[in-house]
Each structure stands twice: as C-alpha cells, then as structure tokens.
Amino acid sequence: MTGQLIYLAIAIIAGFVFSYLARLVRLPNVTGYLVAGLVLGVTGIIPKDTLSGFDIISDVALGFIAFSIGGEFKLSYLKKVGAAPIIIMLLEAFAAVLAVTGALLAFGFDTPLAIMLGAIAAATAPAATLMVVRQYKADGPVTRMLLPVVAMDDAAALMAFSVCSAIAQVMVSQAALSVGQMILEPLLEIVGSLVLGAALGALTALMLRLLRDKGDLTCLAVAVVFAAAALASMLGLSSLLVCMMMGALCVNLSQKSSELQRRTDKITPPIFMLFFVISGAELDVTALASVGVVGVIYILARVVGKVAGASLGAVIAKCESPIKKYLGLTLIPQAGVAIGLSLLAMKVVPQYGATIRAVVLCATLIYELIGPVVTKLALKKAGEIKEPAAAGKKVKNAQ
C-alpha cells in the first residue's frame, strides 16, 4: 500500500510538471499528463506490474467523465437540435468502419483482420475531449454537438464490433452465423446499461430533493458514480453508458443537478490527472516498431472516415457551417474502449490477435498524443476557444 501511494504521489507531481510545460507551448493539459505518464512508464519509474493496481482510478475517472457528458443531454437542447447528434454519430462511426475495412482490403490484407480493425475504428475516447473542453471553457455549436456525439459513440462501436466479430468468427471457423450473437447480445447490453442508468438517475434526482448541504451533494455525487461503475461491472454492462444515462436523467429531473455537477467538478481534477498519467504510463512504445503498413493504414483511414462521416452527417442534418468543418477533427482521440475491444478480438480471431493488439496500442499512443492538440485547434478555428493572451490584447487595443 505504501509503495502504491508513493507512485501515485510521483504521478501527480509529474502531471503538474508536464502540464505546466505543455501550457508553456500552448498545448492542452491532457497532453502534458499523457507525456508525463509515458516518461514514467518508459523509464520504469512506475513499474508496469504496479499499474494494474490502479484500475479503480480508471473506472472512477471514466464514471465521472460519462456522468458529466450525460449532463449535456438536456431536453431543451435535444429538442432544438433534433436528430442531428444521432445522424452525425451513426455516419462518423460507420464511415470509420468502412474506411478502415475498405483500405485494408484494398491493400490485400485478410478479410477477418480488416473487418475486426474496422469495427474497433468506430470507438472514440470521450475523456481527452472533455478535458480539452473544460480546460479552455470551450462553448459554441461545435462543442455542444461534440459532447452528445462522443457520448453515443460507444454504443455504435459496441454494435459495430459485435456484428463484425460474428462475421469474422464465421469466416475463420466456418461456423453458422448467429443472429443472437451478432445483434441481440450487444443490444441487450446497451438497453440494460441505459435502463440501469435511468433507474440510478431517477433515484439520484429524488435524493437531491432531500439534500440541502453542499457537502452532502458532493458525497452523493461520489456515491452514485461509484455505485454505477460497480453495478455495471457486476452485471456485465457498459459503465460509460450507465453513468452517461444517469447524468442525463438527473439533469432533466432535478434543478439541483447543475449544483451537483459543480460539486463534482471541484473534486475530479486530481482523479482525471491520475487517470491520464496512468494511461500514458500504460502506453506501449514498443508497439510502434511492429505495426508496419497495417498500422499506418488504420491510423490514417480512421481519421479520414471520422472527418468525412461527421461532415456528411452535419450536411444531412443541416447543421451550422462550423460543425460541418471542424466537428470531425475533434473525434480523433481513441483509448480505453478500443483497447478493451482489441482484447476481445484476440479471443474471436486469435490468429490475428497479436497484430490487432499491436495496431490498436500504437494507434492509441498516437491518437492520445495528437488528438487533444487537434481538438484544441479545431475548436479554436471554430471560434469556441478564447485564448487569454488574445483577450488581453483586445482590451489593450480598445484602450
């Protein structure tokens, strides 16, 4: 226990130092956290076998992130934008699947490998995106569209992976194609996650009526996120979808939900810092040497698919011009969900498992390092990030 506490202290100090250095060169804090973790992992300051003991931090951080994103699903906003987030999410997710699968097939790679990597390409990491939005207090049509799209991405990725894995398994083993395995199982997981999240959200909203003290609100936020993550794990459901739905129900059923979100915002910074530093330490730089052409194709084709699909979805949904131009660039980050799916892929098509694992780990390393930077640039181009220095210059000119 003492050793783990020391490593956590080292991780926080490194996060502070590297986030400060990142800000000096105008990079997002999250990039600094990831680089800090990468340095700690590569140098062996935090041993690899110690990192598995920090899994609870990742579970808690992702729970709070999903809960915060769920708070963006206000009915007033959803009525205003209509089906636009759903249209964009479906097109950007499945365009990534098609782009990666098609590119790998065009270069002559085996079909099971191509469709498995294509399915994993649908996943997007909400954590890094939310951190950039929070750090720069981004606000505008792109930001408001981005959060619900990213939140729903995991459901699309789960469905895509289930369908593609069933097809790949049939091709490898020559077994009969099971509709239940391909459609019903992931659908039950998604519906079960949403139902559990809705129940917990309604219960949280009810408890908010009984609480007055702000300290009690903080305790409630911690309790419900912990409970949601634990129940999701016990029942084999998606903790991200459970916590997201819980946040969505809560924000629409209780006027105190905004205060609850503010209370959680005050306690989560060290949790998020540790999450990203630990994530950086877990990144495997040795994967870079083993991915070859298949890795390069995956990394480039996924970006093309995400950007093109988001843009097409925005055009179909008749969204504002900044959404059409910049939304796709904010969907580059990819991490935990993709890594989890790569582990499942190793069981579905074991003969391609090593390649899939190496490609996804390499892609995660690259996406997590450049993704937050590209997200910041895209939101800045969209006019939704106001740099402090620029703001000060404007005041000076006005005088």
List the topology elements.
Layout: H1 2-24, H2 29-43, H3 48-51, H4 55-70, H5 75-81, H6 84-106, H7 111-120, H8 126-135, H9 141-173, H10 179-210, H11 214-235, H12 239-253, H13 257-267, H14 269-282, H15 292-316, H16 321-326, H17 336-348, H18 350-381, H19 388-398
Helix pairs in contact: 1-2, 1-14, 2-14, 2-18, 4-11, 4-12, 4-14, 6-7, 6-9, 6-15, 7-9, 8-9, 8-18, 9-10, 9-17, 10-11, 10-12, 11-12, 11-13, 15-18, 17-18
N- to C-terminal distance: 58 Å
- Summed up, the helix count is 19
Q: What is the H/E string?
A: HHHHHHHHHHHHHHHHHHH
**Rg calc:** 21 Å
Q: Name the beta content range.
A: under 5%
Stretches with pLDDT under 50, minimum 5 residues: 389-399
Question: Strand tally, please?
Answer: 0
| Overall mean pLDDT | 81
Biggest sheet details: none
Helix content: over 70%
Assembly state here? single chain
Derived structural class:
mainly alpha
- Principal-axes geometry comes out as globular
